Amino acid sequence: MVFSSNPLSLSVPEPAFESWLRDTGYLEVLDHRTSAAAAATTANSNSAPIPATGFFSRIVTLLSLFTLNPFSKLTAEDFSGDTPSWSRSFIGFCGSYSFPSSPSQARFRVHENVKRYARNYAYLFILFFACALYKMPLALVGLISCLALWDFFKYFSDRWGLDQYPVIRQCLIRLAQCATAVILIFSNVQMALFCAISVSYA
């Protein structure tokens, strides 16, 4: 039997409802909705079934995270709020951890985790990057020399009035960018950055 829509009923669009659940802290409800939707899609698909439980399904779930960009849904507003508590919110209690039931639920959890704790991850990245620069002094010297190079460029650009000569200014900017790239490559700053990103993401 098909029910006709009631004009007096409250109808909320699905994205707005999910956004409200996310903003008010009902992530468990949203998590269950995602896992139920994933289970319904798996049941309706005609592809070869993947075992729902066991070691291989967990491997598939973990491997699905390597195709994910966790920073794709970040906005500037995520960094403007208050930093969540490190002990109660960011680390949490033992009961707050569970293995995701499907790859879509794992992707949803990663996106929500990065979005909610963006400031915590930013602080961790700065800390690990500083540690990596401490262990790699050549990278620290390269980074400081690049900052000094751009500071000198800004100082002489203001002193010589290069804003009046846009072609010369663009040529000098390109030259400074090439010099910066050479300094960063030869001082292995990219390795320190890669180490900090890897440890922060893990």
Summarize the structure.
The protein has 202 residues and is an all-alpha fold. The chain has helices spanning 14-23, 27-44, 55-64, 86-91, 103-116, 118-135, 137-160, 166-186, 189-201. The chain is elongated.
Could you describe the 3D structure shown?
- The protein has 202 residues and is mainly alpha-helical.
- The protein has helices at 14-23, 27-44, 55-64, 86-91, 103-116, 118-135, 137-160, 166-186, 189-201.
- α6 packs across α9 (189-201) and α7 packs antiparallel against α8 (166-186).
- It starts with 13 loop residues before the first helix and ends with a helix.
Q: What is the overall silhouette? A: elongated
Q: How many angstroms does the end-to-end distance come to?
A: 51 Å
Describe the biggest sheet? none
* Quaternary structure type: single chain
Query: What proportion of the residues is helical, as a percent range?
Result: 55-70%
Number of helices: 9
Chain-wise SSE layout:
Blueprint: H1 14-23, H2 27-44, H3 55-64, H4 86-91, H5 103-116, H6 118-135, H7 137-160, H8 166-186, H9 189-201
Helix pairs in contact: 2-5, 3-5, 6-9, 7-8, 7-9
Keywords summarizing the entry:
single chain; 202 residues; mainly alpha; elongated
